[in-house]
Design a protein that fits this description.
By secondary structure, the protein is an alpha+beta fold. It has one domain. Helices cover about 25% and strands about 35% of the residues. It has a 4-stranded antiparallel beta sheet with strand order 1-2-3-4. The termini are far apart.
């Protein structure tokens, strides 16, 4: 997965290693990693990641 184009959030500090990075290895897949430990990669599908993001956003509103 070293050939992936990893993207950091615009909320991350410049040059910092305290964020989650995301990449899209395929049309349905999503890869996630912690910038402090880039060798550890979690893969999931877009639907599952979307459900997680919606859940986190909903929890922030309450």
């Amino acid at each position: 997965m070293s050939d992936l184009r990893w993207i950091k959030s615009s909320f991350s500090e410049e040059g910092g290693n305290n964020c989650v990075e995301i990449a899209a290895p395929g049309p349905e897949g999503i890869a996630l990693r912690e910038s402090e430990s880039p060798a550890r990669v979690l893969t999931t599908d877009r639907a599952a990641l979307g459900a997680l993001v919606r859940s986190v956003k909903a929890a922030q509103l309450t």
